[in-house]
Amino acid sequence: MTPMKTQPTRKHSQSTSLHIAPIAYNQLAGSWRTEAMRSHATPRLLFITKGQGRITVAGMTHGYGPNNMIFLPAHVMYGYEAGPSVFGTMLTIPKAMADEWPEETVHLRLRDVHAQRQAAAMFEAIEHELQASQQTHSRAAHYHLGLMSVFFERQMNLSPARTATDRTEGTAARLVAAYTDLIERDYKTAQGVSDFAAALGVTPTHLTRCCNQTCGRSALSLLRDRITYEACLMLRDSAAPVSQIASDLGFRSAAYFTRSFQAKMGHTPSHFRKNGAGKSVRHH
């Protein structure tokens, strides 16, 4: 891949328009693209059609499998496994249509064959319309998305026993969800786990214990993971100097940022940028 420094500078942002993308295993792309904690400015809808794995949403880990639909509201932190057997689709929901979807995360398991076929057909219809360039096709894609929201709401009503990755699963889950909210809001401010724990009125030890209980990871791991993901995006999508990225992410020096990034990713920020945005993320 051409070194990033020769690429034109792109604004560091995430898509907020209607967009559809495949979910599929790609060893060369790097697991950080799926597994590392991240969030988006607009909602996402995942539809898994093949394979199984785990997804962590707001600090709560659940399994997923074929014919699962997972709705992720804006600004909710998540990451998921996408092994060799996994295939599916991720839909970006425009901000203007976000009100048509739930306010909390919802994980539906479609067991009815007719519903499974309906969901697949709706995704195919949206993809078909988005592949065309005419304005009428864009309008049609948005109308299909509106129908998708109706379908999703009906499935919620038919599946009261669905597994939810929201904030109703006990004290530990609620605390960790609140912690992930604080991370998402303040991860660029150089605050540590002790600062977040103090804001939540608990000790760092208790916070880490709860994180390990809900997702098998420490409080520090979740925080570092979110920062590292953002660093990866900034290194991939901009030509900003490493020193500027370090500053933007709240690091006191470029050297400290480099050591932290290398400990997480296995190589330096400069190496990551020059070699196709990396191939792995080490979870600590």
From TrEMBL:
UniProt keywords, alphabetically:
Activator, DNA-binding, Transcription, Transcription regulation
Q: Which residues form the HTH araC/xylS-type domain?
A: 177-275
Per the record's keyword annotation, is DNA-binding included, yes or no?
yes
Under which name does UniProt file this protein? Answer: AraC-like DNA-binding protein
Tagged with keyword Transcription regulation: yes
Q: Which InterPro entries match?
A: AraC-bd (IPR003313), Homeodomain-like_sf (IPR009057), HTH-like (IPR037923), HTH_AraC (IPR018060), Tscrpt_reg_AraC-type_HTH (IPR020449)
Give the species this sequence originates from. Answer: Yoonia ponticola
Q: For this protein, what is any one GO molecular function term?
A: DNA-binding transcription factor activity
